[in-house]
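Kindly inspect this one:
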Amino acid sequence: MTLLDADWLTPSGWQRGHLHLQDGRIVALDAQPIAASEAGSGGRLRGLPGFIDTHVHGGGGRDSMEGAEALDVMARLHARHGTTALLATTMTAPLAEIEAALRAFAPACAARRPGAARVLGVHLEGPYLNPERLGAQPDHILPAALAEVQRLHALAPIRVLTLAPELPGHLALIGPLRDLGIRVQIGHSNADYDTGCAALAAGAAGFTHLFNAMTPLHHRAPGLVGAALAHAQHAELIPDLLHVHPGAMRAALRAIPGLFCVTDATAAAGMPEGDYQLGGQPVRLCQGGVRLPDGTLAGSALTMDQALRHLVQIGLPLEDAARRVSTLAAEFLGLPDRGRIAAGAWADLVLLDEALQVRRVVVEGEEVHVHPDA
């Protein structure tokens, strides 16, 4: 039995006292309720549910498409920044390379490595995208086919799949993909508002990196952004303050109940400025942004602890910010035993100091070593 003492953010509010852990799960909380204004007082650490990142390509100098060793490096890097669970996210690539990546991901999906975040499965971002909205994705686009997705799903569990619904046959695939347990996100898409609404009606679960690589909002042509703001229950948002202006972030946070945050992190996360790879493409980290040689934003160098601090910076209460980087992603994925501090849940925890810097991380009951500069 492990005991941890802190101010804990639970589903019923802040509580001060001891958390009891056993066999990787929370057994009980021996604590008393406190006001939000008291949390972290007296130099106490504040304990939040561990962060969940459903869209992450790399970190620690490694790219997920490089295979198992690279995935282990990035899962360790992000764990040190409070991410306790993630989806290994692919880039658009020749099908043989995607298959090789999924085969390499499978062991990590089956068993967590010590010191690393849990790999919950795969986010297949491409190749079923619109070539007119590639963003930083390479141009290896394919039309989606159910049999092909089923074959990829058998290699490693696909939890999320990004799809451009306006392409021939894609709208009709959303229901069968949902029936496989795959959450379809609309993204890298040139669809109009009506097609976006039709995709939601067909069973699409959300939107990939809202505002980016999709048709924008105009008052006479609402686009996919308009469909999301008007109708979505869930959507991803990259809160690095580069991909989306804080004003647009606030609009989305107000409109979409289950809006959750992702990093879209590349190999540059946790690394100094310089040159890195994203799905085999050269990218450069400079002045906080990751870009292709032509200047196109290419993912980010964001970590989830910085995402949390950015949300607080633009005005969210810590309690709401914590939901956006953890609980709501767990709900989106249908995981009631993650993203919350409650008896029976996995002991996925991040403890922060007064400046919201990570001081301790626990992944499924294992304390992860946090470097002083993590």
Summary: The longest helix spans residues 95-110. The longest strand covers residues 13-22.
